[in-house]
Amino acid sequence: MQALARAARGFWPAAAAAAGRGNRGQVQPSRGIVVHVRDGNLERALQVMERKMRSSGIERLIKRRTEHHVKNSEKRVLARKALMARVRSQELGKNLRDILIKKIRSV
What we know:
GO terms for molecular function: structural constituent of ribosome. By secondary structure, the protein is mainly alpha-helical. It contains five helices and no strands. Among the domains are: 34-65, no CATH class; 69-106. It has helices at 2-8, 13-21, 42-56, 58-65, 72-106.
């Protein structure tokens, strides 16, 4: 266990600092989504977990990572949506830049 802690010192500075101070009994704060099951109500806990996943965007990341066949027509639709989003973003940037230039020149 100590060898593992020594090896981890180089990777995580916080872990190295904690190991150097001797904080052996403390629990590290958990990362990600935490859901508590109250009164053994697992169905309700699952609903809460799904809601938290949707709101945090994890669901989209998981869907994006899954490797499955995408039809060519679907690829075209996705490519067109991405293109339109880029165009809208560029147009918005141009409009904001023009507004800022007008404000600067009027001052």
